[in-house]
Design brief:
Radius of gyration: 20 Å
Shape: globular
Number of strands: 24
Distance between the termini: 19 Å
Helix content: under 10%
Mean pLDDT: 83
Number of helices: 2
Order of helices and strands: HEEEEEEEEEEEEEEEHEEEEEEEEE
Strand content: 35-45%
Low-confidence stretches: 1-32, 34-52
Structural class: mainly beta
Strand order of the largest sheet: 1-19-18-17-16
């Protein structure tokens, strides 16, 4: 879950992105998740040359514009109707681990919080329907590994809800929700920017920074805790549902898309302005969703033509795509409302989990969902 400062920081990191989303193996044209043949002259090892004629204007101004109505209907899901109040008192998670968790929630916090681990509390909704509270200070992590002032966040649940991962200055911390056993994983670099589980739940990718401008993605095997460098910079949107990683890079006046599967990659030019794609896109079965400034933009996955835009209002907090609910529906967050869905075919928005009150100036809440347990 990303707050505005996280998004701004990631935008700066994305200026150096060269590649994108991960999975099994193979780099033939058939392995391209969009099913499109790279432009003439493109290959799995070298990008296509620039087209001899300029592409036609991208018709974003002509797409349908949707807005979020008041009184949203509820989306049918296994998620709770609302997040708990920030001052809730729940049983201690370490004394009564849930086995698996469906949802985590970090109450509102601000960028200037300086309480260290003692100020970090995360609520967990177990598959038994009960909320529990984790006081991060109880994990006895070294004080030097707290990320410092800024928002900490709700961490990331594995797809099956059995393991929780959270950032530290040294790398990440993994918490087994069946045993309450925690393990620290140290990763090269100075600071953890963000992390994302692979769809199979067997490993997790961690974006680490070193110094002011050097970023690198590391993959951590869940069983062995072995760490290895990934051949891409992980986009904010993480992995496509097929396990591939897709990123976009500027190539002259064009946009180069690269699809990563393991150590292999396929590259080709796509007719999307780089300024729209530079943070990556949430790749779904039939659409790719790009996060814009207070808007979400759906693009057809084969033609790369814009289809629809969900426009957030001035009073709305920043929203960002989190994944695909079904073939045409994305789920995302709006800091003022909670977790929502948007059907890009019909334009209809629905509510998954409400936050109350909504985020206000300079304060942010965050959440993580076990995606295999959402329905």
């Amino acid at each position: 879950m990303w707050c505005p400062r996280h998004v701004i920081r990631m935008r700066c990191a994305r200026l150096v992105i060269v590649t994108a989303l991960l999975a099994g193996s193979g780099c033939s044209e058939a392995s391209d998740p969009d099913g499109a043949t790279p432009p003439s002259g493109a290959s799995s090892t070298s990008p296509a040359p620039r087209a001899s004629t300029p592409p036609p204007p991208w018709p974003i101004a002509q797409v349908r514009v949707d807005r979020i109505a008041d009184g949203l209907p509820r989306e049918d899901s296994s998620l709770p109707t609302a997040f708990p109040p920030d001052d809730s008192v729940f049983p201690d998670l370490l004394g009564d681990p849930p086995g698996r968790a469906r949802l985590t929630y970090h109450p509102r916090e601000s960028f200037d919080d300086r309480g260290g681990w003692g100020a970090e509390r995360v609520f967990f909704l177990g598959v038994d329907g009960l909320w529990r509270s984790l006081e991060m200070v109880d994990l006895r992590l070294p004080a030097s590994t707290h990320p410092g002032s800024d928002t900490y966040g709700a961490g990331e649940l594995s797809p099956d809800g059995s393991t929780w991962a959270a950032k530290t200055r040294a790398g990440i911390m993994l918490l087994d929700l069946a045993t309450a056993r925690s393990r620290e994983v140290r990763i090269p670099g100075d600071h953890t920017n963000y992390l994302a589980w692979r769809p199979d739940g067997r490993s997790i990718d961690v974006m680490r920074s070193r110094g002011a401008s050097s970023d690198r993605t590391w993959s951590v095997d869940l069983r062995s805790l072995d760490t290895s460098p990934a051949p891409y910079l992980l986009p904010i949107d993480g992995f496509a549902d097929d396990g591939s990683v897709v990123t976009f890079a500027k190539r002259g006046d064009d946009t180069l898309r690269t699809v990563h599967r393991g150590q292999s990659q396929v590259s080709g030019l796509v007719p999307v302005p780089y300024r729209r794609a530079r943070l990556g896109g949430a790749v779904g079965p039939s659409h790719v969703l790009f996060g814009l400034n207070r808007a979400l933009l759906a693009v057809d996955r084969r033609s790369w033509a814009p289809v629809a835009r969900l426009q957030l209002g001035r009073r709305d907090a920043v929203g960002w795509p989190r994944g695909w609910w079904d073939q045409d529906t994305v789920w995302f967050y709006d800091g003022g409302r909670g977790l929502l869905t948007w059907d890009v075919a019909t334009g209809r928005a629905r509510l998954l989990t409400r936050v109350s009150p909504g985020a206000r100036s300079a304060t942010y809440w965050s959440a993580s969902v076990a995606v295999d347990l959402m329905r």
